[in-house]
Request: fold
Amino acid sequence: MRGLELSEQFYWQVVSPLIARRFPWLQERYAAGLIGYGSDVLGYDDEISRDHEWGPRGHIWLSTADYSRYARRLDRILHEELPLEFLGFKTRFVVDHGLQALVPAPEGQTGTHHHVAITTVPRYLRIQFGLRRLPPTVLDWICLPEQKLLELTRGKVFYDPVGEISAVRQAFAYLPDDVWRFKLQYAWEAVDSVDVAMLNAARGDTLSARINLNKLVESIVRIVFLLNRRYCPGSPKWLSREFYALPRLAREIGPRLEECQVMDDIPASCSVIADVLRILVDEQNRLGITEPVTLEAPEYRQEQQSFYLQKVIRALAESLPPELRELEIHGGSDQWVTNADVLIWAEQYGKLRAIYRHKGRVKRHGIGDKMI
Reply:
């Protein structure tokens, strides 16, 4: 049984009747579901996934007033009255300090926790996303990692007579158009360097060539997610499954990308990459995101470079509103930040707003300043 199905049955058969019996006045005033982190939220969990943060679990969203009045009491009653097992799976968990995660509690273990998180929608948005008000600002959207947006919009809401959490999930279904094009611009900037891998190979720098190729493949995958208007996972763990589930382009170019990663002939791999980039430019033109763009050879042409992407990048930049076009840092936070701890915790990636706002103060107007 998949974890999402298990958790939904756990809610309807155990949690919901308990709340109805012990808190009948809350019956039409809360929502329940399972969203957030975990392979079960994405629907990819298997037996290997059951070692941590897996089992009968979920979220309860109360109103702010009800949270103040009843959250502590509800938490205690869930701990005292939930069965120790449901459909053969443990409902009590303990912290594994090595994994920094909750794992099923051994028999007789003290200090256990049930896995039903009690919160409010504003509290959830503040803790998980650093959002204190809605709608988000443009900078909020740029700083939000797509992995966090994936967590918010996947999984399932089991019960929601209030409609608040469902409305939030709908509002975050995908990036606003301006932010989408802003991230596309950076994504194309990241692949405008096929020639570098070719030059590495020509000089015998195979390790550098392979690293560049792998980075190009990852950047192409991110473009495909953007062209499909789907959130890209932050971890490679489920990237392949999410990629091949995309409705457009993935099944056409995915096998080519996999092939070029293992080919012995690096120039041939670069040729595959170049062909894939042409397909992506054609798709972007077909979608009408900007005025149609044609690929051209660069004025200064090295033998390794057949075209450049500056027209694609410039067309996207020109389509942006001044607020985004004038930012000194291009791309969303998860496109240039690689520290996982920054991208997981709202209190960390929220600090990036100040970086985007900051205007550079180094003056480069003197003779030679731009050449030194």
Notes: The CA atoms of residues 37 and 151 lie 6 Å apart.
